[in-house]
Amino acid sequence: MDLNTLIETTVSGLGYELVDIEMSPRGRTIRVFIDTPAKENGVDVEDCARVSNQLTRLFEVENVDFDRLEISSPGLDRVVKKAEDFARFAGQDIQIKVRIPQGGRRNFQGELLGCTDGKVGLRLEKDDVELEFTNIEKARLVPRFD
Hints:
The protein has helices at 3-13, 45-61, 83-88, and strands at residues 17-23, 29-35, 68-72, 93-102, 105-116, 119-123, 128-132, 136-141. The protein has 146 residues and is α+β, with helices and mostly antiparallel strands.
């Protein structure tokens, strides 16, 4: 079982959602971003400690070699990767970078309209666009501070 699958299985087994995994170039630092949609205030320190303890024990058993394990909430500017997340965060501002330019652009920022039939809807200042979900390279929420 590869490391990503191992982490996702463990995190979801504890009742959390795996948002993202980042690894340093040599794999010595592993950053795991978790969320808990069921809790109104999101992930807290106890949640991070619980996941950290479980993953540390798991890595020892599975002989995963690392120097540092960091567990964190995804933050206000969280990464959006799954189609379900594009639907869940509809109505929020988002930045999206696509792999293959669309309409001469690779970067888009606007209000997320959701995800339907493999297309992510985005309301820009002047018009609405649909981006192919499979063409999205990176997407991140943009927090509003009104």
